[in-house]
Amino acid sequence: MVYLKGGTYVPLYSLDTLKSIVKPFQMDVYPVTNNQYLSFVLKNENWQKGKAIQLFTDSTYLKHWATSWSLGKDSNKIKNAPVVNVSWYAAKKYCEYLGKRLPTVAEWEFAAMASETKANASTDSGFYQKIVDWYAKPNHNHTLGNIGGTFKNFYGIWDMHGLVWEWTQDFNSALTSGESRSDSSLDKDLFCGGGAVNAKNLKNYAAFMRYAMRSSLKAKYSVGNLGFRCVKDVIVH
Amino acid sequence: MKNILVIISMILLLSSCHSKKEFKIPEQFPDNSIFNLTSEWKTQDGRIVPLKDFGGKINVAAMIFTSCRSACPRITADIQRIETEVQKKHKDEVGFLLISMDPDRDTPEKLKQFALDHHLDLSRWTLLTGNDDDVMELANVLDVRFKKSVENGIDHSNVIHVVDPAGVIVHQQIGLAVDPVETLNAIEKLYE
């Protein structure tokens, strides 16, 4: 894991008064791989494919694995690729099992602001363009590359962009009412909202994409390009 | 006089003769039961309980936070509306759960005060608070979205859940001041 000293992060939808303070934390260098997830389910039967309960997983949980306890004949191809088709509950349990936790949206976005050379590349339009280009690129062969295949950012963290989408602890804080295309404000009866919501950085189209992705998720969903990595609090002595 | 007493007691007998149904708690909860969650919660009296302790009866549940000024009192009022109707037919058989999405501020004492302020009968109502992660997990199980907002507020979705005796969510009333007829029907269906 690598250490990040934290700082402030301005959420996409917020008021100026609502900067998130990101406390120091440690983050996994890579997304969790199929192989790593396999060793977790081998020790935690409850989370094996076919055994994990419906409350926590949907029917496509780990569907790219051959069996409950093996990756199958594609093992060599996928073992070092990020694990996907895992629910939020499963990702959370995996991190907890290792004494870690899922990153908050603020922590994830804070780490993701870093380009190869800058801790905060949020004013670097070239950096954002690269991310948006990745989002726009279709994945025709439906397989993900191995971890460590994109770029290492300022903090030494790999693959924050360009490989896989990632679960966050509070992904469900994206308040949009599903099907509605006119969510310019909160629906007052559906959501109780004290403050008006305004998007902060209109140029950050990539952040909008991630916001939309998160707001479309439910915790039991398995998605073919959605994985995760873990973080850990830093205990200050 | 004697006849009148007989008639009165017959009326009383008849009226208490509604269909009280005994629900059994299954040995193993269904796969989609919220009682599969192993988290523990604190009640308004500071008692520590797992969710499965609420099994064996129908529960109407919602997530709230007590410092909420607009929607939470309304959602509580919406549940009280359901309670009034349910009490007519199934006196004291259905439980009402309010679960805090703001565990840092909602201490058991705060919850107790909220119950007093809203005249909640604690023989039927239970208010729960927990830790952040468990609250997040439960919110996900219940499809409730929330986010910290300005002036210590929390933006959140307004949902009332009907939970069957085995912990399965059988109905969700979404939005505020909704006519509870469908929610009441969902409860009645469990009595069939």
Describe this structure in words.
The complex is a heterodimer of chains A (237) and B (192). Chain A is α+β, with helices and mostly antiparallel strands and 237 residues long. Chain A has a single domain, classed as paralog of FGE (formylglycine-generating enzyme), CATH 3.90.1580.10. Chain A is 23% helix and 9% strand. A 3-stranded antiparallel sheet of chain A has the order 1-4-8, with no helix packed on it. A two-stranded antiparallel sheet of chain A has the order 2-3. A two-stranded parallel ribbon of chain A has the order 5-7. The model of chain A is unreliable at 177-188 and 192-198 (pLDDT under 50). Chain B is of the alpha+beta class. Chain B has one domain (21-191): Glutaredoxin (3-Layer(aba) Sandwich). Chain B contains 5 helices and 9 strands; from the N terminus they run H-E-E-E-H-E-H-E-H-E-E-E-E-H. Chain A binds chain B through residues 15, 17-18, 53-56, 88-89, 92, 101, 169-170, 172-175, 186, 189-195, 218-220, and chain B through 31-34, 36-37, 68-72, 133, 136-137, 139-141, 143-151, 153-158, 174-177. Strand 6 (191-192) of chain A pairs antiparallel with strand 7 (154-157) of chain B.
Mind sketching the topology for me?
The complex is a heterodimer of chains A (237) and B (192).
Chain A: E1 2-4, E2 7-9, E3 20-22, E4 25-27, H1 34-43, H2 75-78, H3 88-97, H4 105-112, H5 125-136, E5 165-166, E6 191-192, H6 205-215, E7 226-227, E8 231-233
Parallel strand pairs in A: 5-7
Antiparallel strand pairs in A: 1-4, 2-3, 4-8
Chain B: H1 2-15, E1 40-43, E2 48-50, E3 59-64, H2 71-89, E4 95-100, H3 108-117, E5 125-129, H4 132-141, E6 146-148, E7 154-157, E8 159-163, E9 169-174, H5 181-191
Parallel strand pairs in B: 3-4, 4-5
Antiparallel strand pairs in B: 1-2, 1-5, 3-8, 6-7, 8-9
